[in-house]
C-alpha cells in the first residue's frame, strides 16, 4: 500500500486501533510513532496503556487493558456505539493536541533547550 493510500484509509476510518501490548519490557522505553500518526489524522485512537506513553496523551486516546482477554473487543463495541459527532470531536481534539504541542518546531525547541541546559551544566561542573 502506498503512503497516500494509508493516510486516506486513516482519514476515512471511524476508529484506528493500535493493538500493541504493554507486557514486553521494551515498551517501557518506547513511544510508538504510530500513535502520533494516528492522532494527527483526526480519527479516534484505541490503544493499550503503554508504559512509555506520557500521561498528557491519555485524555486524547481511548484505552483498552491488554491484560484482560476480551477488553479490546469490548472497547471497540463501546466506542462504535458513540455518536458520530462525539467521535469526530474526540479525534479533532487529539489532532489539535498533536499539531499544537508535538509538532516538529515545538519538539526541536525542547531539544535545543535541553541541550543548552546540559552544556551550561557541564561547563559549571568544570
Automatic annotation (TrEMBL):
Ranges for domain Glycosyl transferase family: 30-96
One matching Pfam family: Glycos_transf_1
Gene3D superfamilies linked: Glycogen Phosphorylase B (3.40.50.2000)
Membrane-spanning residues: none
Entry's Gene Ontology molecular function annotations: glycosyltransferase activity
The name this protein goes by in its record: Glycosyl transferase family 1 domain-containing protein
Organism, as annotated: bioreactor metagenome
